[in-house]
Amino acid sequence: MDFDISYISFYVVQVDGKGEKANKFIKHFQTLDNEGYENSALKDFLDGELMKISKRKVERHPKTDQAPTKIGRFIVEPGHELTSNPNYNLFHKVRYAETIDGFKEHNEQIVHAYVDTAAVRGGVVLIASAKLTKYFDEPFLFIMKCDFEPKVASISDESTLIKNVEMAITTKNMKSIQYPYMPEEGMVEEGELKIHQASHARYFEDFLKFVEYEDSMPEIMKSQVMHMVQEHAQETFAENSEEMQQFEESLEIWEASEKREIQERLDTHQVMEAAAQIIEHTPEAEIRMTIGNTAIKGLLADFGENIHLGKIDGRYVLLVESESIVFDKGVSPLEFHRPDDLHAIIEKMNRK
Question: Are 303 and 271 in contact (CB under 8 A)?
Answer without folding.
Answer: yes
